[in-house]
Amino acid sequence: MPDPKYKHVLIKVSGEMLAGDAGFGVDTTTLNRFAAEIHEVRDMGVSTCVVLGGGNIFRGIAGAAAGMDRAQADYMGMLATVMNGLALQDALEKRGCYTRVMTAIKMDSVAEPYIRRRAIRHLEKGRVVIFAAGTGNPYFSTDTAAALRAAELGCNVILKATKVDGIYDMDPVVHPEAKRFDTLTYHEVLNRRLKVMDSTAVSLCMDNDLPIVVFDLNVPGNIARAVCGEAIGTYVANDAGVA
Predict the structure, then answer these.
(1) CATH number of the domain at 8-237, out of 3.60.20.30, 1.10.10.10, 3.40.1160.10, 3.30.420.40?
(2) How far is CA 41 from the centre of its chain?
(3) What is the pLDDT of residues 28-71, one digit of tens each?
């Protein structure tokens, strides 16, 4: 494996990815493989943060669509991300990889409250830091939480782990003729309304010149490949021609 291109990364993983083929809950095989790949990256000397979604347990926007109060549903979704964070922490620490779960909603019995300087200190000590409960505010996605935390902590890149091998002009599952992009600018993502991240998250990355790499998490070893700068997905930046 070549030397890492990025020394300080934030990995964003949707909750659905943790469900594996079951489609709901946490699949331990998928979780353990994910933990092994994070541990590998950490052992490469890369400062590593993780933001998890909660869609494998509860999606706030889905609850709102079913008639729930949107803010209430979003808070339930934030709690789902805490459950995922604790599951990942358990999988990592069983591998000897020290972690901290930090939450945007105070719950001292199970995790630390998010404090930026404390998070930086954990990273300096070589711990993997898992950020849970989104931003702590309804109406903001975990993609936006990932962009916010990455900007706050000076990360070099957001690694957006998905179930497809990059960004397409159409849903490749529904449209086999869909075209995959190797590179895109933030403006192109926003203007084309491509569904890689919500517009708030993309705009925050654009304003802070924070690149996004979108890649397929289902291919073993892809996290390390993304960290090393291999062209395995779609690269999004202000100057997308320089990956």
Answers:
(1) 3.40.1160.10
(2) 15
(3) 999 999 999 999 999 999 999 999 999 999 887 788 888 889 99
